[in-house]
Amino acid sequence: MNGPIFYSAGHTDALKYATAALKQKGCTFSPEPNLSVTHLLLDVPSFDADGHLKNGGNLQELLSKLPQNVIVFGGNLQHLALKGYQTADFLQDNLYLAENAAITAHCALGFALQHLPITLLDCPVLVVGWGRIGKCLSALLKSIGAAVTVSVRKAADRAMLLALGYDAIDIESLDYGLARYRVIFNTAPEMVLPENAVQHCTADCLKIDLASSPGIAGSDVLWARGLPNREAPETSGQLICRTVLRHKEGVIL
Question: How much is the pLDDT for 253?
Fold first, then answer.
């Protein structure tokens, strides 16, 4: 068979949508791993904390059924078994990361509204962190009329936030000021709001942690990791599809 042949070894709904979208674009998929496969498509991210594939499979066993020159697509591909293989790590791709942050922000907004008895119009909201997700989420919240404050460490970031029309506060100065916020989103992958800070929140404060590791202490925090696959798998799958096609065509951003 001429042309690239893909094999999808993932299990997430996002990857299922991505596979369907790639087929619609004319890509050929093998129903099983074999030596004719040219591109291996894994979940994004691809591995759990123990280094196992997200679908529960064994990477070494899978690779043994594929040619040595197979190209591996996925996320966080720093796996010892992939040494010597050509990989395309989407979590190192700037365009993928930016678009995924925008999807995450939209999902986070919907997730918050599912857990609130109010709208976010004029609602005092704190966003902790000014990375990709923090930027997208703050802009989205501001666009719907929320009263957005962004907490960052760098004075230069606070200055830029003020210039963009946001309220800004130093992370180190949060403690007692937390009582004014009805919703807190954390995007920083570190403990920025420990117990001694969180105790100043009001009882009805909705605390949502979007980071890869907990950043807000407390048993009432909603840790919302992996929202794109959970809340918008088709949109997430379309992004994976576009990224696969870009990498296949050699367009890396």
Answer: 45
